Amino acid sequence: MxxxxxxxENLSSTQNQMARPTESTESSQSVQPINEDxxxxxxxxxxxxxxxxxxxPVYWWRVLVKLFSFxxxxxxxxxxxxxxxxxxxxxxxxxxxxxxxxxxxxxxxxRFFICVMTVIGCSYLTTPDKKKFRQLKSKVxxxxxxxxxxxxMLISLIPNADCIVNAYLSGRNILHLIVCQxxxxxxxxxxxxxxxxxxxxxxxxxxIIFPEGTRSLPGGQHPYKKGAARIALMxxxxxxxxxxxxxxxxxxxxxxxxxxxxxxxxxxxxAYMKDEIFPEPYKNLPEPAAAKRMTQAIHEVLCDxxxxxxxxxx
Length: 314
Known about the structure:
Layout: H1 2-41, H2 56-91, H3 95-119, E1 123-126, H4 130-135, E2 140-143, H5 150-157, E3 161-165, H6 176-182, E4 184-185, H7 190-202, E5 206-209, H8 227-235, E6 239-246, E7 267-273, H9 287-302
Parallel strand pairs: 1-7, 2-5, 2-6, 3-4, 3-5
Antiparallel strand pairs: 6-7
């Protein structure tokens, strides 16, 4: 009898021990939906721990070349604003013709700037879709935003590129005259921005938008905003997602110190055009729901997890 009692006590204690992990599992399952929501907002952390610098002379040369490239960019912007644009206004007095010529001129100058950066060993751009980019017309271009030069790369590929730019660039700085005359600043009201975008798309331009609204953090992407989806739904123009891949853009990311660079290689930008997202399947939904679902579709295409094949570690 004593042995049976001992066995029954051992059996009950074993059952209690087995029940405890079940309770913790159930409690973790009850919290799972919250964790899933958080995971959906936080991308996998890329480029957090770069390898050590192998060749310090080459590394610091690239840092100097980076600073020189930004000096060239600023000087070129000033010359365009003071010399090129006044001449173009004389040649193209009509505002629409001036904007068309201005967009193509800036695209050409950005291509030249990228060639200079390639020659001096700062950065280079590759894409398997160069002809497709040149032929785009009346499209809403959405892209991830890992670095400060993303818009330069995209405009160099798209001759008729228009874009919504940060209000800071339309303030009192060297880019003021270019931005205010050619592009759409965020300092405008929502209605004015939508009107300007619709007008630009009707003229055959492509609107470049970064759904994150700012550069990505080093650890991953920000939640996407619905502006691009709203513009596509309002205009009826399809969205063309573009993933900006390549290697680590250390030194060009948000909050990076100026005197930093990729620890191993030149900056490599690789632009990949994805399948178009059409607004028609969302037209029958209420506008808020349609914009939300279309934005989710954009995120599914452009999130880092769906594009690991286009990411180089260093």
